[in-house]
Amino acid sequence: MTGFLNIYKPAGMSSAAAVNRIKKLTKTPCGHMGTLDPLAEGVLPVGVGNATRLFDYFLQKKKRYTARFRFGATTETLDAEGEVRLGGRVPCAEEIAAALPAFLGEIEQVPPRYSAVSVGGRRGYDLARAGAEFVLAPKKVVVDEFCLTAQTAPDEYEFTVVCGGGTYVRSLVRDLADALGTKGYMTFLRRDASGVFTAETAVALDALHAENVFSYLIPTDMVLPFPVLEGADGRIFHGVQVPVEAADGQYKLFCGGEFYGIARVENGLARAEKKLC
Length: 277
Fold this sequence. Notes:
Layout: E1 3-9, H1 15-26, E2 30-32, E3 41-48, E4 63-71, E5 73-74, E6 85-86, H2 93-99, E7 105-109, E8 118-119, E9 122-123, H3 124-129, E10 139-153, E11 156-163, H4 169-179, E12 184-194, E13 197-198, E14 203-204, E15 242-243, E16 249-255, E17 258-266, E18 269-275
Parallel strand pairs: 1-14, 3-12
Antiparallel strand pairs: 1-3, 2-3, 4-11, 4-12, 5-6, 7-10, 8-9, 10-11, 12-13, 15-18, 16-17, 17-18
């Protein structure tokens, strides 16, 4: 069996632990598309079987989050799992809203020290826990939407964030607080969507068991945003480039009515780029 499971990960569980539970239920190799911090809850797409070969095709997918930021305090982890250190003021809603446009578009962002970013072959969170001194390089990320939606406590506000892969919401609260001359950290995070996978259609992890897990499996071809390549010569399935009347780009490729994989068309020639069966 191969395909995707749209899992709703509960808070308090690592993404790896959620995937391990799916592996045990399906008895099939699995992998997730994009780590969700243990503190966070929400959408965690899990590839089952050969679907994991397609992860590279989802790198540009957009993710939507609901986040809550507390101001006037911070933690070393930039979330509620760290020890709270008070400091700084609590800005008003108008100040926050005025600062948000500076974080839209392509921006440079330094990942949190407590993150899975590799530094000399070791994870940032391992180095931070060991008390090591290290510097993480900034990287370019894309933020499409960063909106203040509510004030949830005297010192806490709720936001909607839509962003590309690799964006750390914890870094956004740090940098937003810096821009406002104060401190802040994330108290809540929910991933509402990851590409075509949404919270509305996700299944709770605890609702899955060995007898029903495959009934929630989404066929691989249904989540790929590519058109179907029609009329390709059968030699394409033997590694041969074949002429086609199709525009350049990536296509879903079927063989005998079954989803075969991904084809790429360049200059009127098509080749099988990724085989799944």
